[in-house]
């Protein structure tokens, strides 16, 4: 069974850094495109970043230069390192799998981890 | 960047009625890369439709998608109580993904 479990969210001051993690089971992170999608409180979905099976990374303009996506194949875990955090980065961060068989749609989602940027 | 605009913002309907949700793209997109998701309060989104018209595994056949170019539609043929939720369209192009702002389907 495919499962994605995020962790690492919390309260962080503006300008600070935080790393959120996503443990995967039932498939290999390295064999798939993996992505982060966020949702600010009461708002819609915003795509954040993706890492390809080959390790290429892409980012939304809103986080480019501040966030870094990575993975640890030995732990089958995806990460999002968030630096220079701003109040507008406050959101639930979802880890998702990009389904090649579903034309680049997101077929599995974690339960999300809340990141709150506030002083 | 391709912008997706969903309408209406809120749709008030009764169980058993037909729901028609629209998603319009700011430029023509490949229908293969248009998807729809359902999100209920406190839950992660769930993939409903991919490739504009193909249902994901386990999705009931009352959900259908159509469209091409810049105009896409999600139709729920007969609303069940569990279908009242927020629906998002999403597109993919050149390693970038974008979502529409969502349509809330609420009980009238």
How would you characterize the overall build of this protein?
The complex is a heterodimer of chains A (about 120) and B (about 110). In chain A, strand 5 and strand 6 (about 55-60) form a beta hairpin. In chain A, strands 2, 4, 5, 6, 9, 10 and 11 form a seven-stranded mixed β-sheet that branches. By secondary structure, chain A is mainly beta. Chain A is about 0% helix and about 55% strand. The model of chain A has no long low-confidence stretch (mean pLDDT about 95). By secondary structure, chain B is mainly beta. The model of chain B has no long low-confidence stretch (mean pLDDT about 95). In chain B, a hairpin with a 6-residue loop joins strand 4 (about 35-40) and strand 5 (about 45-50). Chains A and B meet through strand 5 and strand 10 of A and strand 4, strand 5, strand 8 and strand 9 of B.
What is the overall pLDDT average of chain B?
A: 96
Structural class of chain B: mainly beta
Describe the sheet with the most strands of chain A: 7 strands, mixed
Task: Output the helix-strand order of chain A.
Answer: EEEEEEEEEEE
**Proportion of helical residues of chain B:** under 10%
Strand content of chain A: over 45%
Shape of chain B: globular
Number of strands of chain B: 10
Q: Could you tell me how far the N terminus lies from the C terminus of chain A, measured between alpha carbons in angstroms?
A: 40 Å
Helicity level of chain A: under 10%
How confident is the prediction overall: mean pLDDT of chain A?
Answer: 96
Order of helices and strands of chain B: EEEEEEEEEE
Cα-based radius of gyration of chain B, to the nearest Å: 13 Å
Class computed from helices, strands and strand pairing of chain A: mainly beta
- Unreliable stretches of chain B (pLDDT < 50, length at least 5) are none
Tally of DSSP helical segments of chain A: 0
Q: Largest interface: which pair?
A: A-B, 24 and 25 residues
Number of strands of chain A: 11
């Amino acid at each position: 069974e495919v499962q994605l479990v995020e962790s690492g969210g919390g309260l962080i001051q503006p300008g600070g850094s935080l790393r959120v993690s996503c443990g995967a089971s039932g498939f290999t992170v390295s064999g798939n495109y993996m992505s982060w999608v966020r949702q600010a409180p009461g708002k819609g979905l915003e795509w954040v970043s993706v890492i390809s099976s080959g390790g290429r990374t892409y980012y939304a303009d809103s986080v480019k230069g501040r966030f870094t996506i990575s993975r640890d194949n030995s732990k089958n875990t995806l990460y999002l390192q968030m630096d220079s955090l701003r109040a507008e980065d406050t959101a639930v961060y979802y880890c998702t799998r990009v389904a090649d068989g579903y034309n680049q749609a997101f077929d599995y989602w974690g339960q999300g981890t809340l990141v709150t940027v506030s002083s | 960047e391709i912008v997706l605009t969903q309408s209406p913002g809120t749709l008030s309907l009764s169980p058993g009625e037909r729901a028609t949700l629209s998603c319009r793209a700011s430029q023509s997109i490949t229908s293969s890369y248009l998807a729809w998701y359902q999100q209920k309060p406190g839950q992660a989104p769930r993939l409903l439709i991919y490739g504009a018209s193909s249902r994901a595994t386990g999705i009931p056949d009352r959900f259908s998608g159509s469209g091409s170019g810049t105009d896409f539609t999600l139709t729920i043929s007969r609303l069940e109580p569990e279908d009242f939720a927020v629906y998002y369209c999403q597109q993919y192009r050149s390693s970038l993904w974008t979502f529409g702002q969502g349509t809330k389907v609420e009980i009238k």
